[in-house]
Amino acid sequence: MSEVISNNKNQTSHWAENFIEEGQNPALPPEKLAALPHDSGLLHTTGMAKYIDDLPTPANCLHGAFALAYEGVGKIKTIDISKARELKGVVKIYLASDIIGENNCGPVVHDDPILAENEIRFAGQAYAFVVAKTRHIARIAARLISIEIETREAITTVDEAMDAESFLHEPLIFNNGEYETASELAEHKLSGRMYIGGQDHLYLEGQVALAIPSEDSLHLFSSTQHPTEVQDLMANAMDWPAVRVSVEIRRMGGGFGGKESQASQIAVMAGIAAFDLGVAVKLRLDRDDDMIMTGKRHDFRADYEAAFDVNGKILGVKHIFAGRCGHSNDLSRSINDRTMFHADNGYFIPSYHFISHRCKTDTVSNTAFRGFGGPQGMVAIERVMDKIAAKLGKDPLDVRLENLYGKHGNHTPYGMEVTDNVLPELIEQIAQSSDYKKRRAEINAFNAIGGIIRKGIALTPIKFGISFTATHLNQAGSLVHIYKDGSVHLNHGGTEMGQGLYTKIRAVVMKELGIKKENIAITSTRTDKVPNTSPTAASSGADMNGMAAFEACKILKARLSAHFQEIFQVNDTPIFEGGVVKAGAHEISFEKLVRSAYMGRVQLSAAGYYATPDISWDAATGRGRPFYYFAYGASVSEVEINALTGENKVIRVDILHDVGNSLNPALDYGQIEGGFIQGMGWLTMEELVYSDKGLCLTHAPSTYKIPCMSDRPEMHISLFENNNREETIYRSKAVGEPPLMLPISVHSAMSHAVSSFSPKGEWPDLDTPATNEMILKAVRTEMGKSK
Amino acid sequence: MKTITKIRFFHQNQEVTIEGLKPQTSILDYLREHRGLTGTKEGCNEGDCGACSVILAEIGDDEQIHYKSLNACVALLHTLHGKWLLSVEDLTSKEGDVHPVAMEMFKTHGSQCGFCTPGFVMNMAAEHSNDNHDIDFPDLLSGNLCRCTGYGPIELAAKRSFKMDKPSWFIQIENHAKAWLREFNNQEDLSLSHEGQMLYAPHNAENFARFYENNPKAVIIGGTTDVGLWLTKQLRDIQTFLSVTRVHEFHQIEESETSYKIGAAVSLNRAFNALEDEYPEAKDWHQRFASHQIRNAGTLVGNIANASPIGDSPPLLMVLGAVLYLRKGEEKRTLPIEDYFIAYGKQNRHHGEFIEAVEIPKRNLAMKLVAHKISRRRDQDITTTLFAASWKDTQEQFYDVKIAFGGMAATPKFAQQIMSYLNSTPKADLNPLTIVKLMKEDFQPIDDLRASAQYRVDASLNLIISTFWNEEIALEVQRRLAS
At B255, is the secondary structure helix, strand, or coil? Predict the structure, then answer.
């Protein structure tokens, strides 16, 4: 074959080129403060950063492994541990009956057993736990355990669950009662169905915990995004008050939502054994076990109907979502809610009837993953936009512009007004800078010539709601100590998983106290320092913990200022900057002021607290203001497909993204590029395959393919100049999740390329992930249509 | 003949000895659990993510040190013998100076969670230390997965650091290592035994052949890029390993006027580099064959010997007319490579017999060649379908057509019916729709987790038709089949 889709080489587009000097220079001028490199960067690159598996273990530390039931679902008849027990080096084998307290690791509804009890609810579920002298022995012993079950037919897909009406709970419905009328009156209508695939987190560091017992308590090192939840579930499993458990995490090797609820089972199991045996127990899952027994992004079936006018203006949309939740609730209610909150994306939909079914299946319980259900809703509405455009023979961008919030209305289907919309301006900027119109015309001309290589281009926007929709989670705490010598100990409830949260929060303290980063020690997140924390999730880490640290600094500054006024006998409020505290002619170094304050018996420790204001959500009525604000962005992607093999490639990507007033542009660019590539993987190559019994077959990176370096396209990323209208920390915006949805343009562009084979210019029903196979199938479907 | 029972290698500026560990211990477990060096990470434990990348360095015939990155999770301890091991900790000097690749990774914001980072850094450091400046970084680094960054900052770090020199403190250690490596005696057999497990790594072919004839149940290993997974994933208990890695004859690439004969211990990368000038059409196939680290450790003969239906080398070698050299004790025979694959899990190989080398003919100038791999991800993925074809032709007729596929049957397999049709029919009479019919006779692939049988057939047909007709006709046939 002469034309093979090429490898992308010699990239020239690297945002990091603009942020290298900051990394070199530790003594930064104040205005450069914002672009400080990751606090652990040099520790990472030299191998010195310690993850949980790297910590020195106490003497006689034992190791655990789960036994998994691969054979299907059904009632447990017998479990035979005799062979495993005989293996030299095995210390103890735990079954569900050995758990003293509650056998549950479900975060909201207590419906998720740590070890299967009475029945196996999905193929791959853990039902026994071996503790042995080495990890190797534990793993061998786990496979010597056998289980017999009365297997029953498993419901494994959304289609099967919908047919069987197998649901976790009642559907959520947004319905203003006008869709049916709008649909009847509309000039144009369309409908369709789309399958949207799931995604494994593939954090490079798998699930791991180290449990250390003492006489009446447990200290858990857990690779978790939610230390407080691990604490609570551990206490429940022991029938203890929460105060007897402390949880600590310095850093995770990636989380992406996969360690929000999924870390608990691992940590709690290790804790149960450690306290029982009186020695430390480490539990680190093998990658295969990890991918088989922990939850993933929900896969969806999305049915849509749209009514629209000749300009492409939407009159009404009906969505019926069916999300595969798995065997238990986990976080599925909130995740599917968020799908509903994002089924409008950036578009005003005057008449709507959205229904969200939460399918209960006999498969692993799906969980949080960057975007938390939002991406699936956005993919569905973007498909509607593309379909409308194809039907009317318009550029999809024009249909998108026609329907953006602001033009015909600002009212969302959940009763919240959109007041901070920047999409019209943002889209105009990126359409210009990416030369979208011209390139689209060129691509259409290229495709019209024929040939096996076809190109596609698309511009898609995102609008992502920031806040936990479970309103009570929107609170955070911090703890700041100033020691006598002026060095500062910083702690807060957020966890570090690579996103640079600690670096951002430290910058807040640097700015508020006017001191250098070297004077601030960032310490492990611990439930015994800041209690009752929310998960580091919903992109809220910097927003909430940054504010909590700000509040603590405010308290400390007020006390130090009062002391300053006392020693200098002035009324002016001093400013803290460049290592000194000054007011008018009076100036003192931060260290000296601190020492003096100590001698003057001023309290030098403060706890900060923050609760996000002005938000509310009533799940019963489906109304409220669930989000404090929205983060916006848009991307333009260009792709190539090979019509004979389905092979495909993302060629060029332009991104304009709104992070408000950036807390740290280097970290924000990193989140944008990383989120984009992760989302691109979800939509293109990351395909999860399950057996008929519901067992995950793609349970290792050998068979589950995330993008690698050669998949990275040419990328042009810019930040949209904007300040958050809400009073967030320094008017910044959250950045963790939103970029994951930018690559919806990749999927639209793939569809555009495929559409060139459609005799009537129809838009293909390309599902996600758009693998080689899916693209070839879509090409053949379009080619097979008559003229 | 002297047999030694301890592993000796150079590490952290001194000689290190290992004894009393099970031979199947991986270099990764050794570093992390027995040496407390935790910078090297375990991400997948199967050689796919690259987080465990370390460097093994050795002296080449050119008296220079050659640095090779490999996946420590599937590399067994004996491969350290007589080598210099570097892990990420070796990229910081005693005084705290940081090697340019690690420093640039930091400065370009190349780490986020940091867990994959040591692996990237080590894979880069190997080529940096080889003073190799002409690098295709996406190819070099396709065996290192990062879930956070999107790779841009990492690529930038690589580009920047490769413009920088080796630090002087590193050169100093390099010189010590060179002296140690030069003095090391490679003329000994290595025999390791612990807890009922034995590993024998003889230094010559005669000892190897004799041992295998007497111990036909021994598991032959090279880079353990496949057998490693028997250990880490299947937790198999293997009694006896027999390693090709120290057999000096097996490291030879013998070039004659008509062929290259590639020994059993020649790594994939070395073999491919030798073939690249001969068959430039195979460059893409080479790049997409596993990852750089796997190609450094795995052997071409191993890829053939394990006879996987999705092995990437057999289809190409079949259409090139490769021949296997088999040996049992002193008995030797040759076999066309296609005759080696009998059925799934069954090969034309007697008890105690092994493949000593594969011979690949040099190019016949009239021959045309195509190799096209289809996989879910372009780089470092397992084959869905691998298509290879060679042929000659005149204006009127194709001849010497060979077409082989991987991933389409229980073994790598020729498209027999299609080949004979193309060989026997004048070009003017060839009908692409006949290929569609013959395809069904030649192949009945199965659905699996990589693709459906239908996709395999569709894509394979398109590849054949676009090769022997052209793309437009392939497209037209597809249109007809679709409607």
Answer: strand
Tens-place pLDDT, residues A86-113: 999 999 999 999 999 999 999 999 999 9
Interface ipTM > 0.90: yes
Decide if B381 contacts B294 (C-beta within 8 A): no
The C-alpha atoms of residue A224 and residue A230 are separated, in whole angstroms, by 8
E-strand ranges in B72-147 read 84-86
pLDDT of residue B1: 59
- Which residues from A are below 8 Å from B462, CB to CB? 644-645
Using CB atoms, pick whichever of B88, B117, B145 lies closest to residue A708.
B145
- Assign A80 to helix, strand or coil: strand
Active site residues of A: 737
Residue A690 DSSP one-character state: B
Distance from CA of B350 to the nearest CA of A (A): 31
b/e sequence B240-254, b meaning 16+ C-beta within 10 Å: bbbbbbbbebbbbbe
How close, in Å, is residue B189 to chain A by CA atoms?
A: 29
From the list B39, B48, B450, the residue facing A701 with the nearest CB is: B48
Cβ neighbours around A165 below 10 Å, total: 9
Provide the token pair at A115.
């070890």
Q: With beta carbons under 8 A apart, name residues in chain A contacting B372.
A: 1, 4, 645
> How long, in residues, is chain A?
787
Q: What is the pLDDT of residue A33?
A: 55
Indicate the pLDDT class of residue A752, thresholds 50, 70 and 90.
very high
For A629-644, letters b (16+ CB in 10 Å) and e give: bbbbbbbbbbbbbbbb
What is the spatial distance between Cα A121 and Cα A75, in angstroms, rounded to a whole number? 9
Q: Is the link from the previous residue into A769 a cis peptide, with omega within 30 of 0?
A: yes
**Beta strand ranges found along A545-671 (DSSP E):** 575-577, 580-583, 586-589, 605-611, 616-618, 623-625, 629-642, 648-657
Tell me the shortest Cα–Cα distance from A560 to chain B, in angstroms. 36
Task: With beta carbons less than 8 A apart as the criterion, state whether B361 and B370 touch.
Answer: no
Please name the residues in contact with B450: beta carbons below 8 A apart, sequence gap of 6 or more. A703, B375, B376, B382, B383, B384, B407
Q: Let me know: does A306 contact A316? Beta carbons within 8 Å.
A: yes
Question: Minimal Cα distance from A43: which residue of B?
Answer: B114
CA atoms within 13 A on the CB side of A560: 34
pLDDT digits (tens, 9 = 90+) for B381-415: 999 999 999 999 999 999 999 999 999 999 999 99
**B369 to chain A: closest CA residue:** A1
Instruction: Give the pairing type, strands B84-86 and B65-71.
Output: unpaired
Instruction: Output phi, psi for A170, to 5 deg.
Output: -65, 155
Q: Which residues of A touch B116 (CB under 8 A)?
A: 204, 253
User: Mapping DSSP to helix (H, G, I), strand (E, B) and coil, where does residue A74 land?
Assistant: strand
| Amino acid in position A708 | C
Residue B131 burial (10 A CB sphere; 0-12, 13-18, 19+): exposed
Q: In DSSP terms, which residues pair with A580 in a beta bridge?
A: A577, A589
The residue ranges of chain B whose pLDDT is under 50 are none
| Closest residue by Cα to residue A194 from A158, A154, A156, A170 | A158
